[in-house]
Amino acid sequence: MAKIRVTKFYDFEMAHALWNYDGLCKNIHGHSYKLYVSVLGEPSQDDNDKKNGMVIDFGDLKKIVKTEIVDRFDHSLVIHKNAPHEKLLELNEMYERHHVFDFQPTCENLVIHFVKIITPLLPAGVKLKNIKLYETASSFAEWDADDN
Question: What CATH class is the domain 4-147?
Fold first, then answer.
């Protein structure tokens, strides 16, 4: 049997600021993120399986990533817990969608965070293979199972 990689694409808008950074990205700014999630597995060959011929139903992968990542982070602000954010977040009418992390919300660290979210939610026999997160049209961070 052949291993097959299945990939789904998502996009969302999110703002962040990099605490203690020495460049312009220390200021709150947003990106139009492009997220590619690839999983690896063998297509079912069971004629009685409703998912016969599939590694994973694209709809099932969509539900996992949309619910746990896109719906949570779209149009939100993500910041490091050490950033002086208390007064900012008191402006609840403008910042009700925010996440305060124990890590710097760089593209690289967001990818690691997304790996930790998605991995345990995949069905048996389906392995997370690759995540690629574009922060801009020309800049992305990538995690690959073969590297880890």
Answer: alpha beta
